[in-house]
Amino acid sequence: MTRYHHAQTVALVLAAGQGTRMNSDLAKVLHPMAGLPLLGHVLGCLEVLGVGRVLVVIGHQRERVRAAFPDAEVEWVVQAEQRGTGHAVLMAGPALEDFEGTLLVVCGDTPLLRAGTLHHLLEHHAASGAAVTVLSTRLPDPKGYGRIVRDLEGGIAAIVEDREATPQQKALDEINSGIYAFQYPALEAVLAGLTTNNAQGEYYLTDTVTLLQRAGHKAAVLCAEDHRELLGINTPEQLAEAERIHAALDPPLPPDAGGAPSGAPGGAPGGAPSGA
N or C: which end of the chain has fewer CB within 10 A? Predict the structure, then answer.
């Protein structure tokens, strides 16, 4: 088994959402796929990645989520009010008070995510010298996702949420996966600049890309070739799709799969818009 070593990296898992579209009273990250809760798949991926610490942001049914992982070597962060992804990272501030290094932000509802892909993201981030590196992918149908707007040099200019995108931007097929590598505390310095002046009235973590650039930092992007592993689960249909993808892969997609994503076709991801 390929294991990676990123001891200077802290992983922050966003797992506070209610998941209203699952039509269930069960917290979204506790829904099972292939015999494990969604969050269990993500934690297994991070264990293979070999990060120094794992923080998990919980909110909806937080005691139930915590109780489902009694032996997990994680630090729980409470987001009592779900006010967006940027707000979730703000809630982790006290736990990161003295931290200097790379903060890897991942979603708790991406059960097909591979450690090898996160390894490539962290390697790319370190080599680029960027304060933020966004993991993107290209979708056959990008509707509902934040679009990656690139500059003339091929770098990232901005992430534009679907609800705020122009018709020209909606035509872009490269989307934000909601997974990032940040320099910390460079991220902390711009979090206070987030506002809720957007269609959802939430603090979008995506806005930190522009804020970091305005502060003189570099932003980078890495495009994952296989969009299937970035499938975010928000509906029963998406959960069933993830089950089908997981079962059909030959060999099955292990959490420690090394190398670059294969680019094989599959069902289109269908998570929430990336700022949600």
Answer: N
